[in-house]
Amino acid sequence: MSEYRFTYGNLIVLYAIFRGKASGDDLPDYVKERIRACLDIYRVVMNSKPDKERTMVIIVGKEPDSQKVKRMLVEGGVQESIIGIDSGSESVAQTFDHILHLIGSKANPPYIYFVGSVWLHDIYNSTVISKMKGYRTQFIGAPDHRPVDEVEREKALDVPKKGKEYYKQKIKDKAVDTLLNIIFPE
């Protein structure tokens, strides 16, 4: 028997939080890349999933930037009626807390696609391991062409609290690396 619950529907979470200001009516390029990735996964879901009518897109971002993101999604083909905005979350962990609150009572929660920049993958992994155990989730990474020091500063603002599961995984990874080094010495 699968460790995951049967899913009913799809939830695409577009992480559009960014530090700094948008210039005028324009969003930063890395947020536009996240929007493109979101539109791509939306098209895949709509073309291939049997439960595509039960799809929702949630934009995680601050006002008024989230309205700009919403407008771009609608221009890209997403129905405005299925778009929601989470302006209360300030980090990946808070985003998943809100999602868990939203879907926690459902017998068959939706399949969750999390769209963010590729550097958010480590933060996503540590958050999902501890909070979303038993739920079907997938990370969709979008390119982020900013300088490394700028990304590192933003990454430091969103550092998750590492739970017990994170350290268990680290120990397991270290044991596998040690075993492979013994079997296949360089």
How would you describe this structure to a colleague?
There is one protein chain. By secondary structure, this protein is an alpha/beta fold. It has a single domain (10-183), classed as 3-Layer(aba) Sandwich (Rossmann fold). Helices cover 45% and strands 16% of the residues. The chain has helices at residues 29-48, 65-75, 92-103, 121-131, 148-157, 164-183, and strands at 10-15, 55-60, 83-86, 111-117, 137-142. The longest helix has 20 residues, at 29-48. The radius of gyration is 18 Å and the shape is globular. The model has no long low-confidence stretch (mean pLDDT 84).
List the keywords.
single chain; 186 residues; alpha/beta; Rossmann fold; 5-stranded parallel sheet; 45% helix
Task: List the SSEs and their pairings.
Layout: E1 10-15, H1 29-48, E2 55-60, H2 65-75, E3 83-86, H3 92-103, E4 111-117, H4 121-131, E5 137-142, H5 148-157, H6 164-183
Parallel strand pairs: 1-2, 1-4, 2-3, 4-5
Helix pairs in contact: 3-4
Summarize the structure in short:
This protein has 186 residues and is an alpha/beta fold.
Distance between the termini: 40 Å
Structural class: alpha/beta
Q: In which range does the helix fraction lie?
A: 40-55%
CATH superfamily: HUPs
- Taken from the alpha-carbon principal axes, the silhouette is globular
What count of helical segments does DSSP give?
Answer: 6
**Segments where pLDDT lies below 50 for 5+ residues?**
none
